[in-house]
Automatic annotation (TrEMBL):
Residues 67-77 have a biased composition (Low complexity). It comes from Kineosporia babensis. Residues 67-94 are annotated as: Disordered. The chain crosses the membrane at residues 112-130, 136-156. Residues 10-62 form the DUF1707 domain. The keyword Membrane applies. This is DUF1707 domain-containing protein. InterPro entries: DUF1707_SHOCT-like. Pfam families: DUF1707 (PF08044).
Amino acid sequence: MSDGVPAEPIRIGHDERQAAVEALKHHQQAGRLDAQEYEERSVKAGNARSQQELDALFTDLPQPHSGAAAYGSAPAGLTQTNSTLTPGAPAPEPVVATGTPRRGVLNIDEPWATTIVSITPILGVVLFFVTESWLWFLAIPVVALLVYGPEGRYGVGPDAALKEKKRKRNR
């Protein structure tokens, strides 16, 4: 706007907030953030409404940042280059994708997967009374297998915490 009034910052979505939290987790694992700083910044990232708010969380941290490269902009105060490394410059750290991989034949993301699996028993009961056939109840495990696969949901169940500890230990 040419009248001197600053333009409204462009709003961000869940994907950008999640990318920022993952980048913060990477910095915590690298020892740049302690647990309290990580928690504070993660809460701010989760509540951020614009890219500028996310960029402010990374002003004192090296790359990776909050996914600004995906939008072609660098965090505030930093310039983004695609040139080769200069001698003595630190190598950029690789960013490991930690998103939850999909399972099952249907490849449905959350929250749709949970919704479909939750509605299946209700639909099975309704169809049982309408058709008077008990075979509709077999749809419950079949739909769950199609949506989540034989391993089930990630991070749910009695041994989820144990699996997470084991996975972190093996890193």
